[in-house]
Task: inverse folding
């Protein structure tokens, strides 16, 4: 049996000042680590949740995003009639031909301009995306310069309250509704009639950037995709909508994660040194105890396990404190540029159980790294010399 | 029987041509020189001698805490110089009980937990361990202090806990390094009485290092160490230094 862990716990408590320093160092590192991961997770979840597994988005072949894509009205009609596309009660195919432009509007918080994604959609857009619902006012009327805005827009930008009028693209637009897209990226968008948007921005009327269709079922994607990609009139790429948005979120979420790891790694170096310092001090102060345990018959492996265990206990305490400190950031709303659409995206931090678990594992790793060298030193202490140190 | 001429056979402890040198500041110091010793089971031996004569070093070598420069130490058939690391630790756990001058209790563990430590290296169940610990504490008269921490005990009580810890796993040999050196006379006498009882009633093989002639009187055999050499007490190599005929 190993040296009892209560020996280590009580020893750590007995020399609480140095233990506290190590706990706080590790707590700070874990808190930053968790918050950065929560930020990346929130950003990714916001984009991905905009997609539905029952929707397919179609872009021009080779286009990596809607900004780079162009589809003609004829192509859009072929796509709407393809197999696997669901139909409304009236028998109309559930397809939304969409146009995306970027508008610059003043942020309410700072007054500086930020890019907003303005999406021209078809009148059936709400049927294509049942996860989007009107939360206030009404949907726009086709042919009119009316806007419906995502629920984040009125609070993020100046002048976007329901009933207001905003000027952009050479036109005057009335905000007639606010929609709720369940916390997805659509909540940061402004929607209007795609045909009107093309006209106002003086774009070719029969050109769209994407077509989103509602599938009869998630399994219908194969049939739809086969039909779309094998039709000689079309040169398109078809994605399940969730896959498309996941891909769109990858760049920014990876940047956030990499930055998070870099910051956490730098802080971890400091935290590991704190753990090393604490554990070296513990070994030094308790060399006679260690020698006594070895004299009683506890082997080198037991001593190493004991002190690494103590370091892990201290680090885990830091991990718990750090995770608790990061919890209030759950739901905290922030925004950043979405590089795939060049528009500002509001998102909420998400401190998930998996992220907290990652933080705790990170703290354990720091505990092992910080505890192992002092533990090896403890195991190698010459018993006879250490016994004289009482 | 105890012999110092290296001619004993089948003794519990057989030490042959034992040398121990230390290097200090570039200078080599001979601590033990060509020492021979045979000790049978149940003997109680006291080592006396001036500081630096090698008493504690000999005790450390017998207990496997240190390694000889030359020579062999065989205890209960095991040559301990051939053991290292995990095996040596396991050997110590099975054969040796240590009683130190400064008690060496773990301050953050209670008397019960300190005494239980050697039993954690055995396969005993929790209830068996409890039984053994309580028996050991009863033997040293400390059952009423078993949940006290070392800081809550007097020096004599701490040393009694240390004795309980040394005997709880029923080791072959007890090694006592100045066990009364830090105690007043009354407490010291209590400790010596317990050690004597362990020899008399439990037939423990005991090696006692002391500067105190009164403590040494308790031993069945007294050996003098001087400059790393055991001084013989009888011409034929058998140690005759029984209490009644010790050289003064």
Result:
């Amino acid at each position: 049996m190993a040296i009892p862990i209560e020996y280590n716990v009580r020893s750590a408590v007995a020399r609480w000042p140095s233990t506290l320093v190590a706990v706080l160092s590790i707590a700070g590192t874990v808190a930053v680590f968790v918050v950065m991961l929560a930020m990346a997770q929130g950003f990714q979840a916001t984009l991905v949740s905009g997609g539905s597994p029952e929707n397919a988005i179609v872009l021009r072949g080779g286009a990596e995003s809607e900004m780079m894509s162009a589809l003609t009205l004829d192509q859009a009609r072929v796509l709407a009639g393809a197999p696997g596309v669901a139909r409304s009660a009236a028998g109309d195919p559930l397809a939304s031909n969409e146009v995306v432009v970027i508008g610059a509007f003043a942020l309410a918080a700072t007054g500086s301009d930020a890019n907003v994604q303005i999406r021209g959609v078809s009148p059936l857009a709400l049927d294509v995306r049942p996860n989007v619902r009107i939360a206030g006012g009404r949907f726009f009327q086709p042919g009119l310069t009316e806007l419906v805005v995502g629920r984040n827009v009125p609070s993020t930008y100046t002048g976007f309250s329901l009933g207001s009028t905003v000027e952009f693209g050479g036109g005057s637009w009335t905000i007639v509704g606010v929609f709720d897209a369940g916390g997805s990226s659509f909540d940061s968008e402004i929607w209007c009639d795609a045909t009107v948007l093309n006209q106002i921005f003086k774009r070719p009327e029969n050109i769209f950037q994407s077509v989103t269709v509602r599938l009869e079922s998630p399994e219908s994607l194969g049939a739809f995709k086969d039909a779309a990609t094998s039709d000689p009139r079309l040169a398109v790429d078809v994605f399940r909508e969730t896959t498309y948005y996941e891909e769109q979120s990858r760049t920014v979420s990876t940047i956030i994660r990499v930055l998070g790891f870099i910051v956490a790694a730098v802080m971890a170096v400091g935290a590991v040194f704190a753990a090393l310092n604490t554990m070296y001090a513990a070994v030094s102060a308790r060399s006679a105890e260690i020698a006594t345990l070895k004299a009683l018959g506890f082997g080198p492996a037991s001593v190493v396990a004991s002190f690494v265990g103590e370091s892990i206990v201290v680090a885990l305490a830091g991990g718990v404190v750090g995770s608790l400190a990061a919890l209030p950031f759950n739901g905290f709303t922030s925004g950043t540029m979405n590089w795939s659409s060049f528009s500002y995206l509001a998102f909420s931090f998400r401190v998930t159980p998996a992220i907290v678990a990652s933080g705790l594992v990170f703290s354990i790793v720091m505990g092992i790294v910080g505890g192992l060298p002092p533990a090896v030193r403890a195991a190698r202490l010459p018993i006879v010399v250490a016994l004289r140190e009482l | 029987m105890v012999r110092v001429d290296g001619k004993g056979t089948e003794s519990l402890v057989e030490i042959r041509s034992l040398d121990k040198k230390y290097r200090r500041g570039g200078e080599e110091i001979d601590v033990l020189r060509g020492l021979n010793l045979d000790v049978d089971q149940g003997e109680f031996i006291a080592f006396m001698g001036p500081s630096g004569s090698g008493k504690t070093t000999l005790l450390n070598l017998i207990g496997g805490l240190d390694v000889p420069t030359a020579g062999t130490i065989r205890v209960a058939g095991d040559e301990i110089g051939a053991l290292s690391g995990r095996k040596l630790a396991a050997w110590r756990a099975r054969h040796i009980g240590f009683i130190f001058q400064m008690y060496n209790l773990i301050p953050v563990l209670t008397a019960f937990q300190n005494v239980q430590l050697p039993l954690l290296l055995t396969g005993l169940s929790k209830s068996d361990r409890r039984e053994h610990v309580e028996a050991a504490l009863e033997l040293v008269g400390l059952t009423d202090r078993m949940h006290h921490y070392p800081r809550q005990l007097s020096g004599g009580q701490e040393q009694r806990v240390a004795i309980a810890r040394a005997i709880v796993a029923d080791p072959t040999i007890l090694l006592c390094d100045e066990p009364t050196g830090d105690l007043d006379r009354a407490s010291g006498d209590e400790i010596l009485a317990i050690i004597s009882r362990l020899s008399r009633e439990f037939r423990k093989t005991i090696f006692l290092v002391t500067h105190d002639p009164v403590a040494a009187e308790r031993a069945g055999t007294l050996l003098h160490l001087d400059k790393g050499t055991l001084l013989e007490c009888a011409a034929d190599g058998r140690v005759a230094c029984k209490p009644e005929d010790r050289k003064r």
Q: What stands out?
A: Residues 2-245 of chain B form a domain with the Rossmann fold fold (CATH 3.40.50.300). Helices of chain B lie at 55-62, 85-95, 111-116, 126-139, 155-167, 185-200, 213-216.
